[in-house]
Design brief:
This protein is of the alpha/beta class. Helix content is about 60%, strand content about 10%.
Length: about 200
């Protein structure tokens, strides 16, 4: 089972991906984690990424795509994986299609967590307040201004993927504003349908 979780920052993709990992035993692939792993493993593509990051630059699509391609070739991805936070652009989406096609594989579903932006900002502020109250560090992007900028960035670069995957018949929306367990139940229904087809 090969899935992509789509949705703006704060929609709950990380939480839902973790639940899928626990239930189905397939890895969650986050580009940040994959980059760090490739750099620490000293792979050829990891060394290229390290040089770019050390220079204070953003890692190119070509490097990110190479790292993802390398990662999905590992044995723990043989029965599937969850892509979280990737692809972010149409060019990366095309790259995913190509790297899967090379292996004779396809995406099973793209699950979009549909959310209300205003409520999302409120959710982020609540998360920051809860962290402060518990004496925990507050994530630096857990403030309204930074978060709204991240939302704008998402809609500019990533939201075109919604149309892209809809046109391919892969997109399934779930109510990301429901409580966590309800969202998980909606996702599980989709996963069962995908497993049957």
């Amino acid at each position: 089972m090969r899935l992509i979780l789509l949705g703006p920052p704060g929609a709950g993709k990380g939480t839902q991906a973790q639940r899928l990992v626990e239930t189905h035993g397939i890895p969650q692939l986050s580009t940040g984690d994959m980059l760090r792993a490739a750099v620490s493993a000293g792979t050829a593509v990891g060394l290229r990424a390290k040089a770019v990051m050390d220079a204070g630059e953003l890692v190119s699509d070509a490097i990110v795509n190479a790292i993802v391609a390398e990662r999905i070739g590992e044995s723990d991805c043989a029965s599937g994986f969850i892509l979280d936070g990737y692809p972010r652009t149409l060019a990366q989406a095309d790259a995913v299609e190509a790297m899967l096609a090379e292996r004779g594989l396809k995406l099973d579903a793209v699950i979009e967590l549909v959310v209300d932006d205003k409520a999302l900002v409120g959710r982020i502020i609540k998360r920051a307040d809860a962290a402060r109250a518990a004496g925990q560090p507050v994530r630096k992007d857990d403030n309204a201004e930074v978060f709204e900028e991240r939302l704008r960035e998402y809609y500019k670069k990533t939201s075109p993927l919604i149309g892209y995957y809809h046109a391919k018949g892969k997109l399934v929306g779930v109510d990301g504003m429901a409580d966590m367990d309800s969202v998980t139940a909606q996702i599980e229904t989709i996963v069962k349908q995908v497993a049957k087809s």
